[in-house]
């Protein structure tokens, strides 16, 4: 699998969202899209469904202008490629370390909460899935984590790295459990050959 694009620059994408008056941060938008994808919301019959859900959840049901629509589609496709990659290259779109540990912790919390929103909206019967029930519970707990600004920033940074890695793996496990891999879609569309 070749992934031509990587995730966009956090700050640049966040600015586009702000300029277009979208109330979500770049982390929250990526979490939402990742949740929709992990629920199995990809493929030709889902092509516009994800956009409709994002418009409903992030823009009062109104379509985005082309200024945002194109980068959003690229983010969606790149995220799908990363999730579907069997080498586990998926990463969360979060601010870099220069933003500071508190900004990164807030962004991670927003990412997780919007991931759960995307997952729940697209697949409301999730809690009936025993293989991911524990993951969903853990992610809910992570989404509610807080911090004290007087905490040691180095310790918080180390703890954040561990939580981030757990979230990254948990998201991939959700994708594996709930979504249809791209390879399965292409295998279904190929017609058997008569010899």
Descriptive notes:
- The longest helix has 26 residues.
- The protein has eight helices and no strands.
- It has one domain: Up-down Bundle (Four Helix Bundle (Hemerythrin (Met), subunit A)), CATH 1.20.120.
- Helix 2 crosses helix 4, helix 5 runs antiparallel to helix 6 and helix 5 packs parallel to helix 7.
- The protein is an all-alpha fold and 195 residues long.
- The C terminus is likely disordered.
- Helices cover 63% and strands 0% of the residues.
Detail the topology: elements first, then pairings.
Elements: H1 10-19, H2 26-38, H3 49-58, H4 66-84, H5 101-122, H6 130-143, H7 153-178, H8 182-189
Short structural summary:
The protein has 195 residues and is mainly alpha-helical. Helices cover 63% and strands 0% of the residues.
Helical residue percent band: 55-70%
What is the radius of gyration? 17 Å
The computed structural class is mainly alpha
Output the number of helix runs.
Answer: 8
Major pleated sheet: none
The CATH homologous superfamily: YgfB uncharacterised protein family PF03695
- Kindly identify the CATH topology: Four Helix Bundle (Hemerythrin (Met), subunit A)
**What is the top-level CATH class?**
Mainly Alpha
Task: Give the terminus-to-terminus CA distance.
Answer: 30 Å
The total of beta strands comes to 0
- Range of strand content: under 5%
What is the average of the pLDDT values?
84
Q: Give the uncertain stretches in residue-range form.
A: 184-195
Listing every helix as H and every strand as E from the N terminus to the C terminus, the arrangement reads: HHHHHHHH
The number of domains is: 1
Q: Mind telling me which CATH architecture this is?
A: Up-down Bundle
Q: Which word captures the global form?
A: globular
């Amino acid at each position: 699998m070749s992934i031509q694009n990587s995730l966009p620059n956090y700050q640049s994408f966040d600015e586009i969202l702000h300029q277009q008056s979208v109330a979500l941060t770049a982390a929250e938008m990526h979490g939402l899209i990742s949740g929709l994808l992990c629920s199995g919301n990809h493929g030709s019959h889902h092509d516009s469904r994800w956009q409709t859900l994002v418009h409903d959840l992030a823009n009062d049901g109104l379509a985005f202008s082309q200024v945002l629509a194109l980068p959003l589609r690229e983010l969606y496709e790149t995220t799908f490629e990363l999730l579907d990659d069997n080498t586990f290259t998926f990463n969360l779109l979060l601010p870099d370390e220069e933003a500071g540990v508190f900004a990164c912790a807030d962004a991670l919390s927003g990412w997780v909460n919007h991931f759960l929103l995307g997952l729940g909206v697209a697949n409301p019967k999730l809690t009936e899935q025993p293989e991911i029930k524990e993951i969903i519970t853990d992610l809910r707990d992570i989404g509610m984590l807080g911090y004290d600004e007087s905490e040691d920033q180095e310790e918080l940074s180390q703890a954040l790295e561990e939580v981030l890695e757990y979230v990254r793996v948990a998201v991939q496990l959700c994708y594996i459990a709930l979504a249809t891999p791209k390879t399965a879609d292409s295998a279904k569309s190929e017609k058997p050959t008569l010899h």
